[in-house]
Amino acid sequence: MSIKELQDRFKSFAIVIMKWAEELPNSPGLRTIKNQIVRSASSSAANYRAACRGKSKADFIYKMKIVEEELDETLFWLELTVGLDEKYRNSISGMWKEGDELLRIVVSSIKTKKANK
Fold first, then answer.
1. Which of 1, 10, 13, 37 could be stapled to 77 by a disulfide with Cβ–Cβ 3.0 to 4.6 Å?
2. What is the pLDDT of residue 116?
3. Residue 96 CB: number of other CB atoms within 10 A?
4. pLDDT given for residue 117 in this prediction
């Protein structure tokens, strides 16, 4: 998969999350999730793009670790949503799968880059 294709995947993931979050009710608990998940999903996409422009291997690794944290946080918010109400399980399954796949790619990239230092 090319860098551009992966950047597009991250962007699409963020867009899907943002559109899904817009549809959630505005109750206090879900409002918190909406705000946080939009931030973490969009941050993972933006930081992946920044990592691709890393000035050095160390810079790339540093930025990819931020991507890893933001993706993991996004997955946490999806889990918390289901914890609040099981009815959301089906609607998040595709997002969860894509987020988990992206996270695996990021972790693998970090490990590979560290091994090639």
1. 37
2. 86
3. 15
4. 67
SS3 94: helix
**CA triplet 27, 11, 78: central angle to 5 degrees?**
35
Q: Is 104 exposed, middle or buried (0-12, 13-18, 19+ CB in 10 A)?
A: exposed
Domains, in order of start, for the chain: 3-115 (1.20.1440.60)
Could you give the CA distance from residue 91 to residue 70 in angstroms, rounded to a whole number?
Answer: 21
Spatial separation of the C-alpha atoms in residues 49 and 112, rounded to whole Å: 18
| Predicted local distance difference test score (pLDDT) of residue 68 | 98
Residues in the chain with pLDDT < 50?
none
One DSSP character per residue, 20-57 reads HHHTS---HHHHHHHHHHHHHHHHHHHHHHHHHT-SSH
Among 48, 24, 52, 27, which Cα is nearest to 37's? 24
Q: Which residues contact 110 (CB under 8 A, 6 or more apart)?
A: 61, 64, 65, 68
